[in-house]
Amino acid sequence: MFRNNKAYCFKLATVALFSVILLVLNKTTNNIPNLSPLIAIITIGVYFFRNKLVFLTTILISQIISDLILGIYGGISIVYLSLMLIAFTVDRVFKKISFYNLILISIYSSFVFYLTTNPIHLFFSNSNLDFNSLMNVYRDGLPFFANTLYATLAFNFFFLTLITIFRVKSNSAKSIN
Asked: Does position 9 have pLDDT exceeding 50, yes or no?
């Protein structure tokens, strides 16, 4: 029993460390705004990490390291809270991975990120705090929303394809034995 727990902890730490490194590299080297696997990793990851605290900590650590490298900005806590909200809701609402659910999850999570993070620009700019300025911020954020949605859909379907391939290989290996 102790060996299994030790092996599980090692695998979990390895996956977490690998995820942090990949996310930090992506965020610090990607020149296309919001074209990132981050939200897809969050939406798929909630299905596979039994320990949600380790999973959420992994995501937050990758974001904090990236932001320390790129620079801290006003409203950073809103971005982190938005990512946690996405993880929490996807974990509670979507219980099964399917093609249809991934489309819904991708749209939902991209939309939540867009709605919650765009007002940050209004509060940390010289704009007036009124409805028209808010609508301008959302209008100006539409290309970033599109990038987020495209990236989330593409990476979610990439991950679903990998999951399907590994399940098929795993099932064929079991049927051979």
From this structure: yes
Residue 100 CA to residue 60 CA, distance in Å, equals 28
- 26: exposed, middle or buried (Cβ count in 10 Å: 0-12, 13-18, 19+): middle
Hunting for tokens 């609508």 — which residue is that?
A: 135
Cα–Cα separations (whole angstroms), residue 117 to 27, 69, 77: 17, 20, 10
Q: What is the pLDDT of residues 81-93, one digit of tens each?
A: 999 999 999 988 8
pLDDT value of residue 138 = 93
From CA 23, how far away is CA 38, in angstroms rounded? 7
